[in-house]
Design brief:
Length: 290
Amino acid sequence: MYSLTCFTIAAILSAAGVSARNSTSECAKGLKMFVSRGTNEPMGAGETGKVVKVISEQIDGSDYEAIRYPASFENPNYFLSVGNGTRLLKETITEYARACPDSKMAVFGYSQGAQITSNNFCGQPPIWSPYSGIDVTDIHGLVEFAKPLPKEVTKNVVAVVLFGDTTHRKDASYNRGNSTGSGIYWRADISACEGLGNRIRSYCDAGDPFCDVNMEPKGNPHLEYVYHYGNEVVEYVIEQYKSGSSNSSGTNVGSPSSPTHAPIQISGANGILSVPVSAIAIVLLVSSMM
């Protein structure tokens, strides 16, 4: 377990790194989409942008906003980057929901971006909260920040899509893909996300070293989710939007499926998690100290 001093230092550094957000978004007449890119992808929507652009073309009056967080492995380190992103996404969705109470939303996250997304919808262990700038002496603040977004904020979220989530849990009912293991930071409590029913999907394939750590890495599955599942996600989100299932809490059903159309073409991985897989050992070592 980290010492209080270490946590205090982390909280100070995180507070300094958390960016202020100015809400400039207009209420979308169609679907408002929020996208959190993967580690080391350039600022913007990253690979997931190829999915949301297609959705925007299919649903009139839709647009998307990329969360402007570090998405870094170093400078700042992964933990501070996740803390920054979790806070920014929380603020962004909350502000939009309050300003646009009748607007439907969809939220996407890839890799580290999937972790900050699931942090907001599933909740997170309070031990991560100091990296979001919460004073470690503020126990109430730590616990409150770790809670999932409230229903009054998420009631109009029609879809949450996670690609290669590091907090993936192998027994979640909302899983898609062919993985059999859990992620580096697998969640002990996924009840809040289970409660979203068919409004959430988490894609993880076998051999992905970040979301399926019990398997030997095979190729680059962590980089291929948009290619393999892009069209499936497009169809899913559009159907969720049209069906008005924003308040649905039904059970996820069905087995993992493959796209029925030609895969969305990708030009490359845009640097998603372009760190040596051996670096995972460092991350796991730090994690084991928590």
